[in-house]
Every structure is written in structure tokens, then in C-alpha cells.
Amino acid sequence: MDNEHLTEVQLISEVQRLRESEGKFRQLLDTTGDFILQADAQTGVICYCNDKFSELLGIPAAELQGMSLYRIFPDEQRQRYANILQGSDDKHIVDDIYLRHREGRHIPVELRTKTVVMDGQELLCAVFRDITTRKMLDKQLKKNCQLQAIINSILQIALKPIPLRRQLDLILDLILSYQWLVFHAKGSIHIIEAERPEALVLFAQKNFDPIQLKLCSVVPVGKCLCGLAAATREILFVNSVDDRHQHKYDGMLPHGHYCVPITLGKRVLGVLNLYVSEGHEHTQEEEEFLAAVANTLAGIISRARTEEHLLRNEEQMRSIIQTTDNAIICANTDAEIVLWNNGAAKIFGYTQHETAGKPLDIIVPGPQKDNFRKDFRTAIETGHSYLLGKEITLTAVRKDSEEFPIELSGALWTVQTGTFFTAILRDITAHVMERREREQAIEKLRKLTGSVVVAISAILEARDPYTAGHQRRVADLSRAMADELGFPKDMIEGVRMAASIHDVGKIYVPSEILSKPGKLLDAEFNLLKHHSQIGHDILKDVDFPWSVAQIILQHHERIDGSGYPLGLKGDDILIEAKIICVADVVEAMTNHRPYRPALGIDRALGEISSNSGVLYDKNVVDACLAVFKRGFVFKG
């Protein structure tokens, strides 16, 4: 009895262990990432499925158990699945296997099957894997490959040395032959030309009727479907002919459109127009494809226009180079001539044929050739030379050995074929002669002006020795101050000349006032103050090289407006007048006058220093102080 009881306990324990093992096994199957089921191999009735499989089909596991295996497959392919599931061999099927979801949609899967015998029953074990994502990725990859293939084909067409219109014809044929999209064999490409920015011009078309060719040859931006796509810069899709389709004609068949703007940045270059069947449903994939094609077309059109522009520029440059009177010469890094224009032939006497490949120094005088070769080599190797970047004057030699002056401007430029030196040269023989004649005329005028000044000074000295000596001393100090301020040589001479006769207006002031030993009466002083205006009026019609009359008029003005005769302020006063003003004050205080003894240089410099920036220009005062610090003294 005890033995029998022990055997029963052991049996119960073993059953419990098996049940626990089965539970763990089922739990393992439920948590796996695969979709698992078992079915009777003879009847096809499902006897087990894990939870993942139940979730995949949206059917509870209890409902699946006892269901015919074939009900989980699409109706139209049940026979194919029956063939797959027959036999006892292991099978691994990847392609075109689908399960049917409760809602009717098909789920692509990968299937592994194996037939086993358990407890005398033949069971079909099936393991499914959902490959929806893989299918989508494969589909997208295929589309991308197809898209890349057509883009590559379009780019190959673009590389052909044919006009843009012919390129667009071939590209349109290629797009319409793309089998992934359901297009009619009909379409067009319109382009916006630079000279007609308000309209789309038909550049390429496929299967347009004659009347359509006439209607669509030029489409205003904003009109009809193509014009609307250009105006909005957005893809326009219609699945039928509606009111926006303004170009209608008798016999036009029902259809839809994709009108795709061809854009580059913010600019619209044109529109790609493709026909589709009436009622066609557009997709995101179609729009993405057409957008990619349009982007490629934009690059092609932009490049073609750039090449056309460059070609026109090149033709214009060739025309300019050959028609200009200046010599334009180009040489390679070995100083061999590679370009010689008509202007060079005219100036130097050599034809283009005579100079091709010849050394550039054939236009350089013999004694200067060695230095020129060194300078040219320095320019090529370092990019720095007096030959580059600025206009210089040189001596050149013609074919007949005549030497003459030229003006040269040189530059280096680099292209794929190498580095080149280009020089623009101008024969300045006539210019040099004119300049020489002009300088001679100016020198004569200077001498004549100097003679006039000397004559005026002599007249003043005869009437008033103090005034004449005063003007000479003011002129000397004014010239020194102008030099200290860094004025150019010609301007310094103008200051000296004006200072030499700045009191010429006193010729109209009675001698007794000029030489009066005491203080002047108000009426006398007012008469004296008119000398600036009188001096201006005397000299205003004399053709001096400088503004002598205006300088004389302003030499008693003060920068605070307290001067005379006009009460000018600050920058309204000529800098030359400001210089003479300070020199006039310093000289007058330093030297003796009929109405008072000399006050001395220290007091004079103290006066201009204390009123620097008030009565007198600060820079001019600083220049005056610097001149005296370096030892300037009045003479005579």
C-alpha cells in the first residue's frame, strides 16, 4: 500500500512538473519576437498560437484556436499557400507571403515551416516574421534607385554639346518614359527668358496639337495652370479640366495635370507640365519624384544660361580686344606671346602671325631687356613686381626700332591651362608731348604771374615801404607753414604767391593813413578794412593757377566769425587764408609799425597760442610754432 501511494505521489509530481515546464515554454513563445502557430497537418485546424500572432492579426487567440489555417491567408492566394504548407520538408519562404488582418489588410511576412509528430499527431509548426518595414524600405530603395537612374540619364543628356531646346526635348521624352508614374505621353517644358520675365516660353513639348502649340507658345505668369504654378512657386495638381485651365480648345480630351515650377533659390526659371488621366489620384511619391526632376532641370537651365552668358561675354571681349586702339598682349610663364591684338599690331608694327610664340621682350629696347626678363620672372614667381597692379610709364620699341613712351598696366591670371601675364599698353607719345607743352605754358604763366606780383609789390613799396616788406616776410612764413603742414609743392607755391600780394588792396588806401604814427580813427580803420575786398576785386579777373583772389579776400577772417569782411567761420575759410592770417599776425606783432614799436616774437607766438582754436586754426598755429622752434627767422 505504501508503495502504491508513493507511485501515485510521484505521478502527480511528474504531471505538475510537466505542466510547469509547458507553462514556461508557452510563456517563452508568447514573449518571443516571432509569430508562432501550430496546426493539424491533416485538417489545417489551428491548435495553438502565441500572443504575438494573435496581436498581429487582431484576432483573439481563443478565436484562432479551432479556426481553419487557410482563413488567415488572403482569399485570392489560398491555393498557393496550400501548396506551400504541404509536405514535411522544412521550408523558408520570404517573397510574396501575406497574412490577412481581421480588418482585411494584408501583412507581408517571412515564413518558416516544419512538420513534426507529437503523441502520434502530425503537426505543422509555422514561424512568421512581420516584414512590413523591410518591404517599405525595399520599395523606397527601389524608387530611389529608379529616381537616381533617371536623374543620371538627365544629367548625361545635359552633358551633350547640343542647344538647350534639344536637351529639354530629350529630357521630356525620358521623363514620359518613366514607367513608375502613370503619365500620358504628353507634356511640355516652359522657360522664363531674361528679356521676358513676365511670361513662360515653350521650349520643349511632346504630342501637342497644332492649336495647342499656338495657345501655349507663350503663357503669362499667373495665367492658366502653368502660369499659376510659376506665380505660386508650388506644385499644382489637378485631376480634371477646371476653370483654372484657361487655354481650352475644341476636341480637347479630358485629362489632369502636374505643373511643377522649376526654381533656383527664389527665382522661377520655368515650369514642367505633365499630363495624367482624368481622375488620377496624386501621391506624395509622385510629387517627390517630380520635385527632384525639377531641381535637376533648374541646374541644367542655369548652367546653360551661364554658358550662353559667358559665350556672349567672350564674343564681346574678343570684339573689344580686337577693336580697341590700345595694345593688349598676353604671354605665358615663359614670356612667350600667346595673344596680340590689332591695337598691338598698329602700335608696334608686328602682325599677330609675326609675334605668335615670340618672346615678349621684342618690344623692349635692347639695353633694358635683361632687367625686364628679371622683373617678369619675379612677377611670375612671387606675384609682386612693378609690372603688376598699377599703371607705369616705360620706353618701348617698334618693329622699325623707333623708341617711344608707353603706359603699361599688367596683371596675372590663372586658368586650368596655366598662368598668364596680360598687359594693356597705350602709346603716350602725343600725351607726353602735350604734357611737355602744357608744363612749358604753365611755367611761362608762373613767370608772368611772378612778374605781375613783383610789379604789384614794387608799386606798394613805392607807396608804403612797411607794407611791401611786411608782405615779403608774411610770404616767407606762410610758405614754411604750408610745407610743415605737408602741402603739395604746387599748393605751397599758391600760398606763397597769395601772401606776397595779400595787402594789394591797400593801394587804394591813402598813404597818410598807412603811415599814420598814432592810433587810427574809426572812420580811418573802417576804410583800411576794405583793403581785403578791394584786393579781391582787383585780382578776381586775373587767371592765376590758384584761388589767389579768394585767399586775399579771406585773410582777415577768424574761425569764430569775428573777422572781416564776410564774418566767415571754421571750414568756410580757405586753409590758405588761415595760414596767411596767422603769418600776418605774427609778422605784424614781431616787427616795427609807424604807430607802435615791435612787440617781439615771444609775444606774437603767445597771441596765436592763446587764441588757438578760437580765432586761429589749431593745426595752422601748431605748424607756425613748429617752424619757429626749428629756427625760422624773418629776413629783411
Plain-language structure description:
- This protein has 636 residues and is of the alpha+beta class.
- The protein has four domains: 22-130, PAS domain (Beta-Lactamase, 2-Layer Sandwich), CATH 3.30.450.20; 149-309, GAF domain (Beta-Lactamase, 2-Layer Sandwich), CATH 3.30.450; 324-427, Beta-Lactamase; 443-629, Hypothetical protein af1432.
- Helices cover 47% and strands 18% of the residues.
- It is built from 22 helices and 17 strands.
- Strands 1, 2, 3, 4, 5 and 6 form a six-stranded antiparallel beta sheet that branches. Strands 9-8-7-12-11-10 form a six-stranded antiparallel beta sheet.
- Strand 11 (256-264) and strand 12 (267-276) form a beta hairpin.
- Helix 5 packs antiparallel against helix 6, helix 14 crosses helix 22 and helix 18 (531-539) packs antiparallel against helix 19 (548-554).
- The longest helix is centred in the middle third of the chain and has 40 residues, at 284-323.
- The radius of gyration is 51 Å and the shape is elongated.
- The mean pLDDT is 83.
